[in-house]
């Protein structure tokens, strides 16, 4: 059985630059909204988030698994971020958009 989209939203995908201590737009080229979708694979009972810029090339700006231990936090305005720490490996990202995380 294949993956299915369980929710979709429009947002700017941001990645945290730990060296400079600031958020930067994901991907190359001009900053643009992305179509961010949550996929569910019922066979493996797994989830992942995929974001593609809403431009003709549909550049993939994020494609990562959502695993146990991920924390999701609201930020000022309409921003949300997530982080995950695993045995000396830390990953994280953020979304800024017109919709709440429930959309």
From TrEMBL:
Any single Pfam family the record assigns to this protein: WH1
Domain WH1: 1-103
Entry-linked InterPro entries: PH-like_dom_sf, WH1/EVH1_dom
Bias (Polar residues) ranges: 81-90
Region of interest (Disordered), ranges: 81-103
Name of the protein: VASP isoform 5
Species lineage: Eukaryota, Metazoa, Chordata, Craniata, Vertebrata
